[in-house]
Amino acid sequence: MSSRIELSGSEWTVTGWNRNQWKLGMSMELGFSINPMLPAIKAVVPGAVQRDLIAAGWLPDPNEGLRSMELEWVNNRDWVYERRFEVPDGWMQDRCELVFEGLDYRGLIYLNGEEITAFEGMFLPVTVDVATKLRVGSGNENILQLVFLPSPEVDGQIGYSNEISKVKSRFNYGWDWCPRIVPVGIWKDVSLQTHSALKLNDYYPKAVPAEDGDGGKVLYRLEAEIWRPGSYKLAYEVVDAAGDIVHSEKKIYELRRGGIHRIEHEMSIAAVRRWWPNGYGDHPLYQARVTVYDAEGRLCAADVKTVAFRTLQFVQNEDSPADALPYTLLVNGVRVFLNGVNWVPISPFFGGVTSEQYAHYLGRFKAMNVNVVRVWGGAITEKEDFYAYCDSHGLLVWQEFLQSSSGLNNCPPDNAAFLKELASVSRAAVIEKRSHPSLMAWCGGNELMWENFSPVDERHGNIAMLKKLVEELDPGRQFFPSSASGPRFGATEEEFGKGLHHDVHGPWLYLGEENHYRFFNHNDSLVQTETGTPGASRAERIRVLADRMSPWPPTKENAYWLHRGAWWIQWEQLSDMFGPWDKERDELEQYCQASRYLQLESLRYMAEATRRREPKSSGFMIWMGNEPFANNANTSMLEYDGMPKPVYYAMKKVFGGLHVSAQYDRLSYRTGESLGCEIFLHADRADQELVPFAVDVHLVQADGAVLQSQRFLAEGGRLNGTIGKLDWQVVDVPGSVLILRLAVCDEHNQQVATNEYLFTANAVCPLEPVRRLPEAAVRVRQGALPEQLVLANISETAAVGVFLIQRDASQLIHLDRNYLMLLPGEQLTVTSMEGPVTPEQFYVEGMNL
Question: Which class does domain 197-297 fall in?
Fold first, then answer.
């Protein structure tokens, strides 16, 4: 039967050489050798040379100060990986292959001193038949060596897409959210595999629920290479999560030697459970197994893949232009609003990312009520651990092919050599990922545009090739030519109402007092697949990582801030919104608080306004969910170490199944003006529409005095629309800060959803009164249950933006809520969704703490 010896792990070394010197070092003919540039050090596979150098103390942490620049030489040297292994007697069968699943980027492979192949690329596996080259038996050591040569140059964020000549992860060459860090090395698993009689080259089970009733079927498709002709029995099984065989069948095939044999089998199942995305139901998974036996009953090969029973269909949005692509997702016939985040690699050294790290970061998004993750096209096709988590936790995946815009030219390449490589890489990606239940759609790439900056479509040969490939290998799966797509890349106020805004990107900034709200109150895009706002990392982290640099002031003259988020320096905007800052007086903590609040206010309103237009709008995807580098400021919701920013908890509410929001025109008002807000109630599930809800609206000032209170009733069927309106004539209030509180109560008068907004009265700068609030004091104590904490405001003014921050970011603690507005004397309970917590695990910060 097929068997494998795993060669991944920590039993490797890596040695550094100046260019070509390793050839002398490995030469037997010359009779002498030279010393390397760097001696052999321990290496971990999969990973990257840089990770091993950091672990050995040869390189600094690239997240400190400007020290990522000290890593830039690494991919311009030659590196030799080495591993020694033995092959037991009797282990080898008809075929024996070394399989390298991912090598980044080019070089040579040696086995026992003999060159066995060259390689170039990073997204195609390298397989070498080594049956005649191995030393077999105890004590007969095999020496495997991989030589990595200098990496090619590829355009980073700014360049010319039409001139891209290699399919390579581009963000590593410098993007606004990651400095230049170009990994080199073995970034996926390595194994020695042997096969008897035949080899399964491809295995694709597809699960389909019955149109009516509880049944389903699995379509098995296999491609096998046969070395021994004869009669073979294939056993097909479907196994549930408990390990019970739901259904099994066996079939005999006569297979001749040579060529690729394609085998198909369909198996019906009487009862299956349907898979639903996060927030809509459970995510039951099944294992589809196939086992191959020869005529004597000997096991020859086996494979297993995860499947689920669900239907995915995209239809046109309600009232969309006739020429618009379908952007509304139906899962099992139910419309699902796309609560999305854009995903980039967790680390620039993506080869070393573990399954635990995937669970940590993706787990944050699951807890945030995300149901779609867009895997951005300028990096990698994500690894199997990523997809396995998404499968089992209801996170749908929008997977882009490996192309992106470049600023100076955004049109995808169309030269024959590149298209050949892109086709091979994309074909391999589709074959590898198509059976995953979480895979929702394929996309041609990120922000690919014609010369006039309108998104490309299938008229471009590159995109036509990818669409044809998906239709061939993954028929029925949605394919989008690019993200964005449609007539316009981004929306403009001048073109609202003209049907030109389909899938749009942007904006990525708070548009300013009045402009921001006017834009999103009138926005008519069908879906927003990339929209964001920058927010600073926590000040404590910025100080810790400063190294020899100065954290203050956060201006374009400060190299520390230019290196770690040059696009997202907010000095001028935060001065306009919160009042001027003093370059000579370090106010980093308050500056970061202001930045983080503006990110929350901006992105929340973007998403709420989009959701209020549902079903004419069908989704909102945040740019960006995570970041691979410790930026001082960025559009991510998670900091590099996985710690949520305040905006995370606001978006957790926006993406909730039941949500209440306010529509307004601006943040700051003058005496005598009307502060008017329409109150909107939204429910995802039809069963919620049968519940009579009430919405309590309270407008309060910073000392806790109530300025206006109202209650609006929503009887069954009145959800997903305006439920009432607040209209308050502005007067002078102490402190000039107004807090609008919204609370949804069920039939038992229990709060089931809340929201809070800040407004100001008679302010010079819209949010300056928030910055000038008197200092508040908040105490944290253990709650009635081990998983509860109680936060109490013991001061005489509101505590704004009370934020619990974990002291240890490696701990995965999901809180049901955070970033709170506590009135004087008020206390609120926060619950951990991960079990017991203590006050000592957190520290507290806030706008006026």
Answer: mainly beta
